User: Fold these one by one.
Assistant:
Number 1:
Amino acid sequence: MRLCRFDDDRLGIVEGEYILDVTGALDVIPASTYPLPTHDPLIAHLDKVLGRIKTLLPDAPRKKLDQVKLLSPLANPGKLIAAPVNYLKHLEEARADSEIHNNSQVIEIQRIGLFLKATSSLIGAGEPVVVRHPDRRNDHEIELAIIIGKPGNNIRAAEAWDHIAAYTIGLDMTVRGPEERSLRKSIDTYSVLGPWMVTADEMGDASNLDFHLSVNGELRQKANTRDLVLDIPALIAYASSFYSLHPGDVIYTGTPEGVGPVKPGDVISVEFEKIGRMEVTVTSA
């Protein structure tokens, strides 16, 4: 299924150009009391929610996609984990461009590891990226984003696929500069997920997906997930060797070559095979 959040935290199923409102399925999620869970309750109870959705679909109200505001498909991820320089051509690009590396050594992902983005930076396709430091270069980075569905620690790569609930498109926006990656990539609105999430059973094999990004109609990035340095199982195994993974945690898998600057007024268009397409506007504060 393709699940989305829209408008006033409504839950929807995407079918073609329509959204079917199945918000009533959220009733199967148990109520939480303080202290609140450190995971996303929808993903933790996804099987029950999907079962309830099937009973609601025949009579679900419909809205056209262009009539709603798409939010991040996840409301409460515990962690946003990201993989730097996970495509070889982007590693070469980053090393060659001083505006990207800011006179710092660009180290291979196997040595530099992963990093975290603040969950407060998360938005959906219907919300704009707001440039925080207009005097500096602000870049787009398209990525496949994995949504963890089953908790785990020290997960073996051979078992990693079983821990995935869904997939979505990620935009890992970044401001260039001397600060640590986590700071420069955690600005409000600099973590985009959308336009919806595709459940793992519908996605099938995610290791050979074409994707591309354009800015104002100009093609900037085009690649395939088969070119990942650390593939999806390896990333999950690597992340879980440092962090306990919980339902709703997100892994941004890395971006290919072609990263470039955006400015207020630009429109970023991204498309992923088997997931879909979204447009994100860029504005000023």
Number 2:
Amino acid sequence: MKRTGLLYDERFLLHKTSPEHPEVPERLIAAYQGVEKGGLLPDLTLFGARRARQELVEAVHSIKYYLRFEEECLYGMPYFMHPDCQMSMQTFEAAMLAIGGVVEAARRVMAGELDNAFCAVRPPGHHAEVNRAMGFCFFNNIAVTARYLQSEWGVKRIGIIDFDVHHGNGTQLIFEDDPGVFFYSIHEHPSFAFPGTGREFEKGTGPGEGYTLNSPMLPGQGDNEYKETLQRDLFPAFEEYKPEIILISAGFDAHVDDDMSDINLSTAGFTWMMERIVDLAEQHAGGRLISVLEGGYNLQRLPELIRNHVSLLLGR
């Protein structure tokens, strides 16, 4: 069995949104209950979050953006930059804890203390750009962690897999000119889904050209189409790139029962996808894999999806 870490911290629940907002604290409670009721806790290394150092955040986000977010949050503004990005006075602190927690998971994996980890965090991050909050995201958790791995561990090849049903525009934009990060995203086609980016011709720029790969999926597609697409696009690309560590933006909103998309992945489809990603990590990255929660809004389905996801990390 793998040495799998679980990042969970009740302080993430202090980031409050309105009851009708999709990204609510109950999402995290449902995720934790899935792991707990699935009997996985005794086999996991449970750890809480540490507040991120400001300089880590500034490796991705500008200081002006950082200070504006902090200030507006403390003033009690109802949202930051866009009505989608609702917040409470504790949101900035929760966002700093989310980054710090994911970075701590990366440190433990790189130090050999863990084989892999699942980070149950909120607010999510993959839509956040250098100077812009959007899509429920304020700081880009995955991007800051990748920069940390580059600067403090000297990792030369980082693979990011984003299977949230919405394209990870922030992550792509941050690394589009960096050959040290291969960004892959499979998501609902941008003609039909937020944020309207992630088309097949978006392949990176300058020295990073060829290290961005998007697989947009038409509405109504499900397990078979996802399997064919991942076998055609992701697996050959990562077999050639040979990442030293894999980071996952794990969104579960492509599930057929999730109202946030028109993609029809089943629970079994998510299991198949994660099995293959774990195999990729074993083949090319010494098993080093860090999964970070992004979307997934059906509170009835989320417990089983997270339970299965963490079970696969454990090697069950």
Number 3:
Amino acid sequence: MQAVRMRTWDARLIAEVGVTIALAGVLHMVKLWQMPQGGSITLGTMVPLFILALRRGPMVGLAAGALYGFFEGWILSGGKNFYHPVQVILDYPLAFGLTALAGFFPRWPAFGVMVGSVARYISHVISGVVFFAQYAPKGQPVLLYSLGYNAFYLGPDFLIAIVLTLLVWERLGKIQAARA
């Protein structure tokens, strides 16, 4: 599917961003697994963000991802996972904003989703190393702990996101082809 890109923030694009954030929020509430110190496997929280980035490009995706990060951090979680301002930025607006990297690869959506997912993972790992070292078992390197902890829930979450994003992307391509 060819990406539909817009250069101006008109009412349609703003509405699409709003619907994307709302859909991601609803999908975030369907938790398949919850981790003890934060993080969860969901029913495709990132799918709407990836679809928007693939359709509208990385800048729109970045704005929507960062806004969704604020929404999840302050509204959905009630701010209960805030330890430091930099940690909040790494775990919420930056992590979800990085899903926008998928927007650079609309012709290869699986690759784009993988790039966006890995970038989000790296943001969470950095946060884990810097702000959550106290949870690492004694004697275990903090980096290895953070890599493992975040991979445990983000790996399955990313697999769900890749499968669902590709299914939706393929369907959107068929709809667009039928309209042409």
Number 4:
Amino acid sequence: MNTHPLNAFKVLFVGLLLVASCQPSPTVTSGTTPTSIRTAISLPTETSIPPAALVNGEPITLEEYESELARYQDSRGTDLATNNADSEIVIRAMIERLLLKQGADSSGLDLGENDLESELEQLIADMGGQESYLRWLEENHYTPSSFEQALLIDMLATMMVEKILSNVPQSEIHANARHILVASREEAENIRQEILAGADFVELAVLYSRDLSTRPAGGSLGWFARGTLTMPTVEEAIFSLQPGELGEVIESELGFHIVQLIQLEDRPLSYDTLLTRQEQSVKNWLDEKWKQAEIEIFVTP
């Protein structure tokens, strides 16, 4: 795709394609796609407009699909017409976008009377006028009508995403904890008994911990939310404790841990953690809609 200063056109579909293209295996599998999906070769009549897919009875036309596939392949900079993975990535992303649009419809979300027109006028102005806009459409496999339709769907899909994200909490319970990492269970049990007998956790961490990143601070892991510690078994053990409690020895792939929960507190999520929570909430919503939807795919890789 030819690049153009189209910053105002924040199409959700572009994001969906980027997410899909980062997957190590883009093949649609039974683990991620409901078994109700049926794939077939479309055999349209002379008067019908051939669909690439039907999503709850709503079509994705073959023309829309082929144009989107061309845009996706253009963005990769090479001719990938025979790449089967591209077809699966693109059709899945288009179905997800349509599911989001349908979710907006069923939730009563709607654009204002002039929202689409205003957005389009702003885009044309940002691109330097009508002539530049029409040239960009041609270079990117759009017609004026197909672009307006895509923009409408994207705006509604974005509204649905915003509704989903509005339910993601901005804060969560965080744990403030510390640990000592050693090589053997025997050593860990001995250190744990010393702490129970009154020895200072921080001093023992500085003396014995093999975790060089936390040892200088007495084994401090700092504040963290669930699902963010790189040692899941250690995290699970910490969140099962009461503040001040010393846990049992925990084994991980790194060795053996003595853990202590210092404090629990509701704290704002970090930017990265909040973004992860938001991405997961949209994914969960889409996964559920895939299971519920009647989807037919008529294009084969």
